[in-house]
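$ ./design --mode recover --in tokens.txt
reading tokens...
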């Protein structure tokens, strides 16, 4: 995108929210006033609907939890506070979980922000770049390389979401893999869950719960720690052999990277 095009888009976004002076210099002089007024009116009438569609696509679980009317109001308010800065609205919306967490209207439902975080991780995984190596990755380096010189590269879009709430159970209930009664039971038991998100080579995105033994190690691996550092971060009952068997079975592991991992 050229600098002028980027500026034009920023000016248009400002104009959508009543900063009409932003259009000066971007519309030809003879038709400036009527053209600006007409065009901005059209964009304003559609901006709210665009916000709802874009965020509804990225946050389907959150939308289902709060209901259509509340989500529509939330999306429009969020657009006002955090308008998109790029033409691709699929990249817009990362700030919504924090926005939900800070919302006074949603303060009675503290789990919503973490459900939103999980929704965004799933959305981001669908847009992640493809893995650069073929499956299965060679594992020889595990036997020949010092753990401090080895890093585990997980599948595209891999993410860990740690929560005080049963967010995996909630997500699966809204995507056909869990019974609603199990959601109620999980909340009644105050069940905390750590979600793991990844995309397989068929581009399907998966969400699973990690147990406490695996969560710290997996988080360290995703954050780029060496194998040695990830093992240091792992819980006392963590088993690397069991973890490796699981990731190979589920195709979480994309590659082993050797060399200086600092």
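writing sequence...
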């Amino acid at each position: 995108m050229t600098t002028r095009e980027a500026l034009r888009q920023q000016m248009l976004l400002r104009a959508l929210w009543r900063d009409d002076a932003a259009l000066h210099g971007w519309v030809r002089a003879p038709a400036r006033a009527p053209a600006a007024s007409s065009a901005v009116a059209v964009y304003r009438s559609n901006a709210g609907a665009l916000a709802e569609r874009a965020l509804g696509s990225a946050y389907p679980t959150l939308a289902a939890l709060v209901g259509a009317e509340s989500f529509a109001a939330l999306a429009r308010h969020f657009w006002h506070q955090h308008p998109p800065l790029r033409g691709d609205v699929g990249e817009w919306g990362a700030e919504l979980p924090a926005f939900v967490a800070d919302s006074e209207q949603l303060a009675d439902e503290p789990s919503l922000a973490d459900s939103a975080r999980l929704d965004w991780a799933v959305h981001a995984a669908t847009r992640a770049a493809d893995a650069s190596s073929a499956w299965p990755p060679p594992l020889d380096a595990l036997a020949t390389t010092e753990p401090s010189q080895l890093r585990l590269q997980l599948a595209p879009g891999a993410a860990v979401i740690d929560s005080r709430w049963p967010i995996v159970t909630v997500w699966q209930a809204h995507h056909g893999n869990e019974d609603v009664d199990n959601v109620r039971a999980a909340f009644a038991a105050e069940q905390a869950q750590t979600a793991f998100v990844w995309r397989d080579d068929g581009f399907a995105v998966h969400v699973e719960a990690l147990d406490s033994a695996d969560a710290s190690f997996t988080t360290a691996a995703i954050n780029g720690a060496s194998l040695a550092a990830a093992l240091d971060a792992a819980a006392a009952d963590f088993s690397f052999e069991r973890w490796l068997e699981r990731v190979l079975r589920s195709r979480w592991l994309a590659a082993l990277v050797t060399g200086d991992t600092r």
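exit 0
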